[in-house]
Amino acid sequence: MLPRKPGHQPQHHYAKVSRMTQKDAASEILVLTSIAMQNCVATSTTKTYSSAWNSWVRVAEVFRFPTHCMHSNSNTPLPSAIVQQAIIQYVSWQCGVCMLAPKSIRKTYLPGIAKTMDRSMITNNFRESSKSPIVRCVLDGYRNMWARQHPASDSIKIPFTTVLAKESIRLINNNSIQPHGLNLVGRLPMARTLTARIYAALMFGIFFLLRKSEYLTIKDPAPSSSGARILRRHSIAFFDQNNARIPYQRIGHWQAYSIRLVINFSKTDQLGLGRLLIHCRQNDIDVNCIVSIMENWIASTRDQYRLSESFPVWTIPDYPDLTGDVISEVMKSTCDIIGLPRSQVSSHSLRYGGATELAAAGFPQYIIATYGGWTENSKAMHIYTRLSTSTNELVSRHMARAGQHRTVQAVVNDLLMHRKELSQRNQVSSDSDSSNEKINHQRKGGKTTAKRGK
């Protein structure tokens, strides 16, 4: 049965259902339920949960407990106490022996194991037991021990900003970095194309605060997915100053004022609500302008290689593919050369670099959250939004000046006034509470009198 749009109920569907036997209907419902179960989590999350389940099976074999937490004879759930003990053995094995981060076990592995059982329609006491106070105490202990050996500050990824992106290109041009493992000396056409592609991809990721899956390879959440959905050229739209979209064949001939990208699905947007991201042309700093960079990339490769608008953004015929591994290696190599730890760089560093630059420019968190697809209270966003030196200087200057032109008496007067305001506010609040209590007492007394009268 093919998936239909919501509300679309063709007449022949009712006829088909009416001709179904009960056995056929039950069989089809079973298939549809199985498909729904397969799509209840994102593709990337499914892979993580699969790793979690495999680790659970291995530990179950070592300690000889049933993987599904069910009695083998009666097929009934094991008691919570037994399941809890099995989970503690699993946690201790993963954190104490395999040295996995306790945070991953708590936030990803245990929920992944529970979800795998849910998707298999197994009802047991695993999820409840994994949240028991005893299991939490064990996880808290491993978390504290892990933190002493691995301070959180050591694991923070390096934000890869536009300055580092330009440095990467300089190192590639000097042949200090060889993207795709290719020596580009003497291969001018290939060198120009590969360098332009890497620079455009780096800047694209930074300006739009993109996850790797959002601009290099996008996983298709549809049930019929047989592979990856690639970001294609028609997904990137250019508009003129009159807010009219520039046709694909005219990109580069008509100067664009803005570039727009719609991210329909992402790790945190499984329903496809999407987010629209827009950047505008900066004529005075054209070399760093993402509108100009992407306009040149799309137009030049379209004309040179005759690429249609349905063609993938980063794919060039007869050239190696641009993957997340290639981008990561360029960034890691750049950090190696300039003296930064390569272990703290990943393709996500572009996303963090964009957030860092927005924060450094003084933009409020809701703008950073909009571009990055974060919630306003996201911990990751707080980690990577750092104040710029100029902002720090402004804060310092303001605080230094605050004590320069004020007398002691002025400060005392302000403090006394503030305390007086607080006292008055508390008195009003106290009077209000007393009035409410009096009213409630009178109401209760009235009811009591009424009852006695009856």
Within the CATH hierarchy, at the fold level, what is the topology of the largest domain? hpI Integrase, Chain A
Shape: globular
Supply the number of structural domains: 2
Alpha-carbon Rg, integer: 30 Å
Unreliably modeled segments: 218-228, 446-454
Strand runs, count = 5
Instruction: Specify the CATH class of the largest domain.
Output: Mainly Alpha
In the CATH hierarchy, what is the superfamily of the largest domain? Intergrase catalytic core
Break the fold down into its secondary structure elements and pairings.
Layout (H helix, E strand, L loop, with lengths): L10 H9 L2 H17 L4 H21 L16 H18 L4 H18 L6 H5 L2 H17 L12 H12 L14 H20 L4 H4 L2 E2 L8 E2 L6 E4 L18 E6 L11 E6 L9 H16 L18 H15 L9 H13 L4 H8 L6 H6 L4 H14 L5 H46 L1
Antiparallel strand pairs: 1-2, 3-4, 4-5
Helix pairs in contact: 3-4, 3-5, 4-7, 5-7, 8-9, 8-12, 9-11, 9-13, 13-14
Task: Tell me about this structure.
- The strands form 2 sheets. Strands 3-4-5 form a 3-stranded antiparallel sheet, covered by helices on one side. A two-stranded antiparallel ribbon has the order 1-2.
- It folds into 2 domains: 20-153, Orthogonal Bundle (DNA polymerase, domain 1); 162-389, Intergrase catalytic core (hpI Integrase, Chain A).
- It is globular.
- It is 57% helix and 4% strand.
- 25% of the residues are buried.
- Helix 3 (43-63) packs across helix 5.
- The chain is built from 17 helices and 5 strands.
- It has helices at residues 11-19, 22-38, 43-63, 80-97, 102-119, 126-130, 133-149, 162-173, 188-207, 212-215, 290-305, 324-338, 348-360, 365-372, 379-384, 389-402, 408-453, and strands at 218-219, 228-229, 236-239, 258-263, 275-280.
- The longest helix is centred in the last third of the chain and has 46 residues, at 408-453.
- It is mostly helical.
- The model is unreliable at 218-228 and 446-454 (pLDDT under 50).
